[in-house]
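Here is the promised in-class demo. Please do not try to memorize the tokens; focus on the logic of going from shape to residues.
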């Protein structure tokens, strides 16, 4: 009986420490937009949701759920729709992770009028919150053949316009 209490307390403590180690989900969008925006987990939960399915390295299918990147950029005031012409087409998105990993996407890639890529900012994997090193947010590129542009531990999206 004494050992079961100790095991129960140890499990509770481990769960508490893990929960404290997990950063709160938030995403900052900054750069060449009217003003910086920070979206919380609650903000993302209220936005239209999408699900994409990708193959894991071993071939198993994984479902990620989240918000389309273009919806987040639209909310932040990035040039989309009828604003996406001429110099605005020189805009790119620099996605930055907590561990320093960075990737780039062009604005045309995600725009429905051009590339129409299904890139999402995911907060769930197979219906559960992203765990440990996967989250709390992940940029997932459903149509990429290799997963190198999927960004785990996503923290920042920087909008850069090369021609002003």
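The designed amino acids, position by position:
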């Amino acid at each position: 009986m004494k050992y079961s209490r100790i095991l129960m307390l140890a499990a509770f403590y481990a769960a508490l420490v893990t929960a404290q180690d997990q950063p709160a989900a938030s995403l900052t969008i900054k750069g060449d937009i009217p003003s910086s925006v920070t979206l919380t987990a609650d903000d993302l939960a209220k936005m239209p949701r999408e699900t994409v399915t990708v193959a894991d390295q071993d071939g198993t299918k994984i479902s990620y759920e989240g918000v389309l990147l273009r919806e987040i950029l639209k909310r932040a005031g990035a040039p989309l729709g009828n604003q996406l012409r001429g110099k605005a087409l020189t805009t790119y998105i620099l996605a930055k992770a907590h561990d320093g990993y960075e990737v780039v996407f062009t604005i045309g890639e995600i725009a429905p009028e051009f590339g129409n890529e299904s890139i999402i900012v995911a907060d769930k994997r197979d219906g559960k919150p992203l765990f440990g090193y996967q989250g709390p947010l992940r940029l997932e590129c459903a149509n990429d053949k290799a997963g190198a542009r999927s960004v785990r531990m996503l923290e920042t999206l920087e909008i850069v316009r090369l021609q002003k």
